[in-house]
Amino acid sequence: MSTPKDEVISATLVLAGSKKVENILVRRKRAPRWENLTIPFFAYNLSLGDIVECHPDEEGIGLFVEKVLRKSGNRTVRVGFAVDGYLDHPEGLKLKKYLRAHGLRFEIFKPALIAINVPPDFDYDVLASRLNAIHRSASIEWEDGDPQPARNLDGGRARRRKHA
After folding, report:
1. CATH superfamily of 75-144
2. Of 45, 27, 44, the residue nearest 36 (C-alpha)
């Protein structure tokens, strides 16, 4: 599989302990290193900006994520809405407005799931407090998808990227 340096492609990540997969966008850095450009909805111990090792499948047409080589320091938080209207519920709309106002990147998996990137310079506890303050009529659940930003996909230790 030959791709130019900076080309963005979709890579398949097999989720730990299951036969399910998640596709993430990656940008080639230097083979076999790729930068994750996606805020994951289902994968644990993976965040936006992490450097991952990818290899092609047997036919050389697909790309699979093998492991995290270097952590970005970002964290991933996921919020699910189980109420009529899902993310269009008033509390969902307020949350999206809050995230935009605070410069937090997020991605939506319609109709009910939002994945939030929490950069290292943002106070995680402030976001957690905001999520805990969402009115229970919104029927939300939230989780930290990368609770230990120094851990790899398999839970092993990962190197951390140095920020300039």
Report:
1. Ribosomal protein S10 (3.30.70.600)
2. 27
- pLDDT, one tens digit per residue, over 50-84 is 999 988 877 777 788 888 899 999 999 999 988 88
Q: How does residue 105 score in pLDDT terms, banded at 50, 70 and 90?
A: very high
Residue 137: Cβ within 10 Å count = 10
3-state secondary structure the chain: CCCCCCCEEEEEEECCCCCCEEEEEEEEEECCEEEECCCCCCCCCCCCCCEEEEEECCCCCCEEEEEEEEECCCEEEEEEECCCCHHHCHHHHHHHHHHHHCCCCEEEECCCEEEEEECCCCCHHHHHHHHHCCCHHHCEEEEECCCCCCECCCCCECEECCCC
